[in-house]
Amino acid sequence: MSTSTGHELDPRDPVDLDASLTDxxxxxxxxxxxxxxxxxxxxxxxxxxxxxxxxxxxxELGSMGVLGMHLDGYGCPxxxxxxxGVVCAELEYGDxxxxxxxSVQGSLAMKAIHAFGSEDxxxxxxxxxxxxxxxxxxxxxxxxxxxxxxxxxxxARRDGDDWVLDGTKMWITNGCLSDxxxxxxxxxxxxxxxxxxxxxxxxxxxxxxxxxxLRASVTSELHLxxxxxxxxxRLPEAAxxxxxxxxxxxxxxxxxxxxxxxxxxCYEAAxxxxxxxxxxxxxxxxxxxxxxxxxxxxVDLGRAQLLALHLGRRKDERGLAAEEVSIGKLANGRTAIExxxxxxxxxxxxxxxxxxxxxxxxxxxxxxxxxxxTEEIHTLAIGRALTGENAIT
Length: 393
Fold this sequence. Notes:
Elements: H1 23-40, H2 44-50, H3 57-63, E1 72-73, E2 76-77, H4 81-94, H5 96-116, H6 119-130, E3 136-139, E4 155-159, E5 162-173, E6 180-187, E7 190-197, E8 203-207, E9 219-230, H7 242-276, E10 278-279, E11 282-283, H8 288-318, H9 322-347, H10 358-368, H11 375-387
Parallel strand pairs: 3-6
Antiparallel strand pairs: 1-2, 4-5, 5-9, 6-7, 8-9, 10-11
Helix pairs in contact: 1-4, 4-5, 4-7, 4-8, 5-6, 5-7, 7-8, 7-9, 7-10, 8-9, 9-10, 9-11
């Protein structure tokens, strides 16, 4: 149906998000979209099934300037938060594991070095990490310290001019790929961050297996047993939990956008399937109940995209409060997984086949809505901001 202006609704962009992006944002989006189509989508189903990650894409992502793209200097292009978000959406359209790789590299590991590192640390690590030549991971979560990182048991004690680290981190994306691990540990002066070269004696990374989500992603355990590093490995500006939580806020912003990419992939798969799959003599898109599902997915997707865009613009203008980021992650995570589940139903039996992207995205999103803050934690963080009452503890 045409409007009075002659504009027709685009089924693949129902809220005309494209018109709200700048030329620069559309250019980087199109570049990454081509990369995903050519390098990720052809074999992502097989990689998911075999639980492998194509680490060769690191330097390709680096050459496109998307690793640490929102950071300034040291080989980083200093692009807008919205541009970074648009890239996250395109990468997660391919797979959550690809977006997670870039997000951990840029918004966790590189962000920690950029915000809290010394000049020597920045010059040593950031340029090769931006190029994808060196990989980083972010060691915060522990077996007994997930939603409450203040409970961490990993320790760092002074021994002369060095620090000796002991402890275990788990659910660490990129761990077994990394050249440097940003490790958060408890010291006599509180929680501090350390840059641990993964070749250091006493450091070991082990792959976590038996995953049924984020299978095309490297998830690891980090073990530190008498791991000795010089004081120059300590992040000098990082003191207390505020530092790692600031990095998490950056990564969560990428998730707000990334989930819209996964949701779009599921919605488009359902739309394509419904308009070509025939039952009872016509495409199933011709039935009212199927149309209702498609409409609900399109409306919810558009709403999630507009929320991501709004938060991106606000972040570029004046920054975001942590609770605003929580609103975005909570809302868009929920929306994306509901779209995935609805799309799975539209595809019927085909919905559980890796020939289509839906079941892969659906299971990936089960992790995405939990990591970097569960729904419960984000809900209570928002509730605290609304009421002034802390119900988390």
